[in-house]
Amino acid sequence: MNKLQELGKSLRLRVLSSHLGAGVVSNQTRHMASEQEAALVAKPDEDKPTVFDKILNKEIPSTVVFEDEKVLAFRDIAPQAPTHIVIIPKIKDGLTGLSKAEERHQDILGHLLYTAKVIAQQEGLSDGFRIVINDGPAGCQSVYHLHVHLLGGRQMNWPPG
């Protein structure tokens, strides 16, 4: 996160804290609020590289846990569970979100889910795991490059949102 992003996050958290009272806002609530805000201001732009494009190009470091010819998987920098891995297609091909999927994307969509299963086994998530795909502002999507979140290592709650 660059200094401008850190400042923006800090300001958002102060505003949220001031509305709810000091000490009332948990770290999880802070992250959720900043993710919701980020999703509301994020705009899909095919011409502008996303943070995931920069990770693929090795411009931004990541902790890679799996890679093949079609996908890259790495640990999330703001984990929401003991195991939180992001799985992305290496070629975006118009897939800024799941709602943009076309018939020609069936292979990569299936590969993303199968890869999640392989990684879950690799990570020892034999008790279960959750797959999340955020789509659009109301779905809390803040990066417009289709990605799958693999979450595990704790009991998940229902409903999720």
Automatic annotation (TrEMBL):
Domain HIT stretches: 51-161
InterPro entries: Histidine_triad_CS (IPR019808), Histidine_triad_HIT (IPR001310), HIT-like (IPR011146), HIT-like_sf (IPR036265)
Motif (Histidine triad motif): 145-149
Cross-referenced CDD domains: PKCI_related (cd01276)
Pfam families: HIT
Species per Swiss-Prot/TrEMBL record: Araucaria cunninghamii (Hoop pine)
PROSITE patterns: HIT_1, HIT_2
Record-given protein name: HIT domain-containing protein
Residues annotated as catalytic: 147 (tele-amp-histidine intermediate)
Gene Ontology molecular function, alphabetical: adenylylsulfatase activity
